[in-house]
Write a structure and sequence with these properties.
This protein has 2 domains: about 120 residues, Response regulator (Rossmann fold, 3-Layer(aba) Sandwich), CATH 3.40.50; about 100 residues, Winged helix-like DNA-binding domain superfamily/Winged helix DNA-binding domain (Arc Repressor Mutant, subunit A, Orthogonal Bundle), CATH 1.10.10. About 40% of the residues lie in helices and about 20% in strands. The radius of gyration is 19 Å and the shape is elongated. The two termini are about 35 Å apart.
């Protein structure tokens, strides 16, 4: 699996360190905060593949953080695992209906938590464990470094290839230009934001192969997403 980045929102320092140790041992990157408002700022500034979210945190509650993450275009599809001491059925239902992908009641085994993280990432990052990424007839062979759409070869430059791979690893997710710049070009890149638009146009032209439906959706004031609702 590619190295997933995780945000841990937990105000119990001892528990946070224990979780971080087990998560990092599995090869994941992790950042920590115990504050709900700061968690929202972190996800606005950096890309995370998963959020571990304690329900009972100071200030903004975990359930409200979850609700706001689901309202933001950039994080609408980010998987969330709720961590909480509230084990009643009504609480679990509330957490899940608010938008959590999984719900773990304290106390829990760190090994179980790591297993749950892996399971959620498998569901939300399709095919990252294989050598092929696929979406709506679009196929990327990671071993051969080839791309095809409906069986027809799609020639791509190195940057467009990296951009498409990132989209294929997160289908349906909306990414801002800033997020794409950091994730595809690197945080130290001095490339201007408008360069992202240039490469998006090149990628769109290459994969649409003429009159085929546009698989890249432009979300006004938000960014871009790989999904089937693009404009033909």
């Amino acid at each position: 699996m590619t190295n997933a980045q995780i945000l841990l929102v937990e105000d119990d320092a001892a528990l946070a360190e224990l979780i971080a140790w087990h998560v990092e041992r599995e090869g994941y990157g992790i950042e920590q905060t115990g504050d709900g408002e700061e968690a929202l700022l972190r996800v606005a500034e950096s890309h995370f593949d998963l959020v571990l979210l304690d329900w009972m945190i100071e200030g903004l509650s975990g359930i409200e953080v979850c609700r706001r993450l689901r309202r933001m275009p950039e994080t609408r599809g980010t998987p969330i695992i709720m961590l909480t001491a509230r084990g009643e059925e009504e609480d679990r239902i509330r957490g899940l209906t608010t938008g959590a992908d999984d719900y773990i009641t304290k106390p829990f085994s760190p090994r179980e938590l790591v297993a749950r993280i892996a399971a959620v990432l498998r569901r939300t990052r399709p095919a990252v464990n294989s050598e092929r990424l696929q979406y709506e007839g679009l196929e990327m062979d990671l071993a051969e470094h080839r791309v095809r759409r409906d069986g027809q070869a799609v020639p791509l430059g190195p940057t467009e290839y990296r951009l498409l791979r990132y989209f294929l690893e997160h289908p349906g997710r909306v990414f801002s230009r800033e997020r794409l710049l950091d994730s595809v070009w690197g945080q130290d890149s001095e490339i201007e934001l408008r360069t992202v638009d240039v490469h998006i146009r090149r990628l769109r032209k290459a994969i649409n192969l003429g009159e085929r439906p546009d698989l890249i959706r432009t979300v006004r004031s938000a960014g871009y997403a790989l999904d089937g609702e693009g404009v033909a």
